[in-house]
Description:
By secondary structure, the chain is an alpha/beta fold.
Amino acid sequence: MQYKEFTVILPTLNEGRNIPELISNLKKRYREIEIIVADDGSKDNTIDEAIRMNKKYGNVKVIDRKKMGREKGLTASVIDGIKRSRTKYVIVMDADLQHPYQVVGKIADRLLDGDKIAVGIRAEVENWPFYRKFVSKSLIIIGYAVLFLRRSQSCGDIFSGFFGVDREFFMNVYSRNKNRFVGRGFKVLYDLLKCVKRDSIQVSDVPYVFKNRKFGESKAGAKQVLDLLKSFAS
Ligand SMILES: Nc1nc2c(ncn2[C@@H]2O[C@H](COP(=O)(O)OP(=O)(O)O)[C@@H](O)[C@H]2O)c(=O)[nH]1
Ligand SMILES: [Mg+2]
């Protein structure tokens, strides 16, 4: 299997302790794969580690968004990464080792089979407290309802941060719907799905087990809930 048609986009914020392991694993398993680290002003050694990984394996690019004066945001970072990529397909994943690198190959297979989007689906969720589960379940129900009412495309996990997409397809949808993508938000897949007409493309689900973070902490919080509500409305 050839991976030179694939770029993995890694949005990062203080993931210096996680990316050496992740990038090494990706490069060892998918030799020719390209990697783009889209960083938002990490205060740790994330950028230095990405540069070190590039020296070691090659084809690891870094977008230092803060230095470039770009507005901070996870979705905006992913979009910058996709714009910068040059391969036929891109795969977006978290840089904190919560998305297993072994699943990248399965997502790649689905894209090569012709699916426009292949979505990593969490088969298990970590031990969240009750309120977080409640908020999360409610947002999922609203999210699905909005897609249904708008006759938009759906999938097995509309809020997944782990997915592959045909690059040209993404860029076409994005360029026609720029202001419907919430740059500061966390849900770029959701913003993409809502801009696509239901059943107009082939989308597949790829199950995986979500892992607990080893190092660093989640940046998701109340602000992201507000950004998601903005996503529903736009
Ligand atoms: N570029 C960029 N990356 C971010 C930002 N916030 C989080 N990330 C990265 O996005 C991924 C998911 O973030 P995380 O905080 O783990 O969210 P969670 O998994 O939903 O709890 C990780 O790789 C983070 O380093 C941001 O504002 N900008
Ligand atoms: Mg995480």
